[in-house]
Predict the structure.
Amino acid sequence: MRNPRWLSAALNQASTILVTLLGLLVLTFVIGRIMPVDPVRAIVGEEATREVYENVYHQLGLDKPMWEQFLFYLRDVATLDFGTSLRTGQPVLDDILHVLPATIELATFAILIGAGIGIPLGVLAAVKKDRWQDHAIRVFSLMGHSMPIFWTGMIGLLVFYAALGWVGGAGRMSQFYIGLVPDRTGFLLIDSALAGEWEVFRSAVNHLILPASLLGYSSSAYITRMTRSFMLDQINQEYVTTARVKGLSERKTIWSHAFGNIKVQLVTIVALAYGALLEGAVLIETVFAWPGFGQYLTSTLRMGDMNALMTCVLLVGVIFIALNLLSDLLYRVFDPRTR
Amino acid sequence: METPILEVEDLSIHYRGAPQPAVRNVSFTLGRERLGIVGESGSGKSTVGRALLKLLPTADITAKRLQFGETDLLNATEKQMLDIRGNRMSMILQDPKFSLNPIRRCGEQIAEAYLTHFRCSKREAKERALAMLEAVQIRDPHLVYNRYPHEVSGGMGQRIMIAMMLLAEPRLVIADEPTSALDVTVRLEVLKILDDLVREKGIGLIMISHDLNLVRNFCDRVLIMYAGRVVETLNAAELDRAQHPYTRGLLAAQPRIGGNRQPLPVLDRRPEWSQPMEGTA
């Protein structure tokens, strides 16, 4: 009885993803065609003869009808062939696999910090609505929301790196250690731990902590506000009164009854915030010279590096689809009504 | 009369920010009996119930006396109240659709009521909860124990609520419109279960309702409230001999099966009834 229902839900999900993915591919394909960058000229250069130009034009399949070109594109994507980056001369996939771990590392720590601060503060603000705690939390999160991240980044570097020396400066680790650890996963913390290079590990944590905290603080602002409003909805529900009538302490009432009912909503907003961080914290990556996805994306944009750009757009879309899928799966864990 | 379970004298409740108090100078005593509080919406009857459990953080409660057993509720600390709620005094809420936590299993929610007040293993609490489910006449307690609230019917949900609130064998249960969210067909069934358990265990019951006929059948005494004030107190059997025009109006407005088809009289409300009267209170 249970299994087919579960199965049909999974099929439903899969077909939704497929359709979304197809839409996304159409979008990136169209971007590739309408951008005012001539892909042939970009390859052959300004000086090339007409003959060479037409040769390449033919090789790229640009003389074929649109739908055929799209099918070729689909085939390339399916075989993970995203072409070569004009800027670096490397396969785009290699480039991205090189920069993505740095951003994932940063974004993951940032979201852990953001949710770790934002959720408890939001709950506290709801429980203490209109009292001084609520106001203090509002000011705190409003500051996180309104201070530009490049500014807090620079001030943070000035204070905690230059003046106090508590944290590392720009980059993922000290210049001194670069190249010391073999690149296995691209995640510096994992690589250095695998290699047993604890000095490098410490240096990496030192460099990560400040940008991750600042990003985390800025995304905690949104998480706090949303948590507060979700929680306020729950606190006035009758089942919360039931919990109180049973003699449960305020703390237990809030955390083991009301909080369980906002988990589904929290998953959604935290996943979205995480997606936004992965998409590239361009500003913070620039301030901290963080060799991540955000920096890569901006330079491809500036260079009109079409292959790379299309792949970046595709990747951002895939990240959001994946996060949506993950939050749908978590709904099922957190809410029995959706099973 | 034996020592009363609850003595209330001159209870007034004022929600902060409201122009008028919601409840004014209500007094009554309760022994091991079933007391009905009847009134229209907004008459303050539910507020009285919640004030007894001190569940009104946004209201100021004043009284000459608010004695529950040995405890002076008026000056009880929150810590004392935690010990009283669910253990010595509990409350059955109106609609199980909203009063049960949607994401926790029904059985766990019942067992939690026991675990909160008694030092025991989870297993023992579960045994107790299962026994209590049986006591509220649920045929397959194990099955229902593992159900989520959205998987049970309204009547079943209210029985779960009753099981949860009577599990710790309190001395007083406040039933706040316990059947108004239920289908007419299961109403009597659920009331009968509640009534049997309350009698069997010698629990005092305050039944808050707008349904005069229901209260007449299930209670020993009836308090009629109007605009935050008790206008009349009667033995349930003597309800027909009510003196107060408001009570008489309520009685006259009751539909009767087999009665004549004339439109029911419209309830007369007079502002002077919300003023204190001589000879009462």
About this structure: The mean pLDDT of chain B is 88. The longest strand of chain B covers residues 6-15.
